[in-house]
Amino acid sequence: MPYEDEDPPFVEPDVELNQIVTLFIGAAIEIHRRLGAGLDEKLYCNALCIELRRRNIPFSTEISIPVTYKDEAIGEKRVDFIIGNRLIVEIKAVECLTSLHSAQLRTYLKITNSKLGLPINFNVPILKDGIKRIINPSAH
After folding, report:
1. Contact residues for 134 (Cβ-Cβ < 8 A; gap 6+)
2. Which residues, in sequence order, are bridge partners of residue 67?
3. Torsions phi, psi for 49 (to 5 deg)
4. Residue range 81-97: average pLDDT?
5. What are the tens digits of pLDDT across the range 50-62?
6. Average pLDDT, stretch 70-89?
7. Which of 47, 56, 63, 130 fits 121 for a cystine, CB–CB 3.0-4.6 Å?
8. Distance (Å, whole) CA 132 – CA 118
9. Alpha-carbon dihedral of residues 30, 89, 22, 113, nearest 10 degrees?
10. What is the pTM of this model?
């Protein structure tokens, strides 16, 4: 039986979602290549806004999403980015991504009924080592 913090088996997203992921990761790599590691999360978020806008990649940033419990509103949670209305992205600048970061993103995927999310840690020498794909197998 898998541990609670393990990902379910990888399921390839649909072609459109996969294209959104590819475009977004390209933009993130460009930022990391130019700025490197060691800055604050907010600076990477600001740079991402510029890069996404220049590449004409549709996005929303710092979106408040409603959280409900038993069909009653209990508040809101802020998500760093929603790319192409389908991909949830959380920006980090930490020593390493932990199971807590994965759990946080799984919760965001669940409350938004989104299929795929990426926690991205810019505080790494090679950005691909700071990207993790989190799948919501119950999303429609």
Report:
1. 7, 102, 105, 106, 109, 116, 117, 118, 119
2. 75
3. -60, -45
4. 95
5. 999 999 999 999 9
6. 95
7. 130
8. 6
9. -170
10. 0.86
